[in-house]
Amino acid sequence: MNSIRILNIDILSIRKQELLEQLGKGVLITPNVDHLVKLQKDREFYEVYQKAEWVVCDSNIVCRASRFLKHPIPEAIPGSSFFTDYYMYHKEDPDCRIFLLGAAEGIAQKARDNINVKTGRDIVVGAHSPSYGFEKNEIECQELVKLVNESGATVLLVGAGAPKQEKWIMKYKEQMPGVKLFMALGATIDFEAGTLKRAPKAWQKSGLEWLYRFLKEPKRLFRRYFIDDMMFFWYFGKQLLGVYKNPWRK
């Protein structure tokens, strides 16, 4: 499968339908502008990316930027909407059993109920909202691993924000042998629960979903979108000029 180099990671050149048909085992990560900036400063996050089997473009901004390259990314596949397509694609597949891990208290359970109603079966076999900072509590992490294993899940979606969710998956995935597919998908659980609304289709198609989210949560997202993430354009400009250097390769 072909991939496109954006800064210091390789992003798969794949369309949504192909991904639905081919996605089986491994770890799915969906990079956006924020990820690409963090990957310049966080070596552990970078190492996680090197081990992931499925690295798929989440961002319309990154997708459009890739048009300046010889081989552009064919389309953005936002993780939050892709997950809906994924479970509907597998709604009659008894081997697809999903566990939702993340979001605030009660939200994962609400998302579970909504998804099971939509698919017409208990495709989501478990849901849990961990405590804030759970990743630093080894006792709680082992309890989470036990919950997933006892549920019989074959797919684990972790929605805890980047880079926390990706690092947690890589640290504990070997302890969950029944899980074949791991997905790191941010706010997806909130979207499925209906507690967080996605941008209207017109905003999504125009690449302005990030602006819609900012208008909903300006205090939380101002620094991320208008300060931190602006560095992406600096790094990408250096790539276009042929002077970008991967900070983790000497």
Automatic annotation (TrEMBL):
Q: One Pfam family of this protein, by short name?
A: Glyco_tran_WecG
Q: Does the keyword Glycosyltransferase apply?
A: yes
Q: Which GO terms describe its molecular function?
A: hexosyltransferase activity
| Coiled-coil region list | none
**What keywords does the record list, in alphabetical order?**
Glycosyltransferase, Transferase
Keyword Transferase on entry? yes
Q: What is this protein called?
A: WecB/TagA/CpsF family glycosyltransferase
Question: Which species is this UniProt entry from?
Answer: Candidatus Cryptobacteroides avicola
